[in-house]
Design a protein that fits this description.
With 56 residues, the chain is mainly α. The chain has one domain (2-48). 88% of the residues lie in helices and 0% in strands. Helix 1 runs antiparallel to helix 2. The radius of gyration is 15 Å and the shape is elongated. The chain starts with a helix and ends with a helix. The chain crosses the membrane at residues 27-47. Keywords: Membrane, Transmembrane, Transmembrane helix.
Amino acid sequence: MTLFLALIIVAIGLGIAGVAVKGLFFLLIIGILVFLVDLVLGGFRIGHRRGARSAR
């Protein structure tokens, strides 16, 4: 959970830097990609936990 939240903060920081600083639009794109990857990995972890509980 700590890694998930840390990646969310990094993604937000990159997004803000990409929007605020002219010419660093690529940081916004990287921030969006980090956010999406984080959501996918978080979804896998939650789905994996649910599957393990239902198998009991």
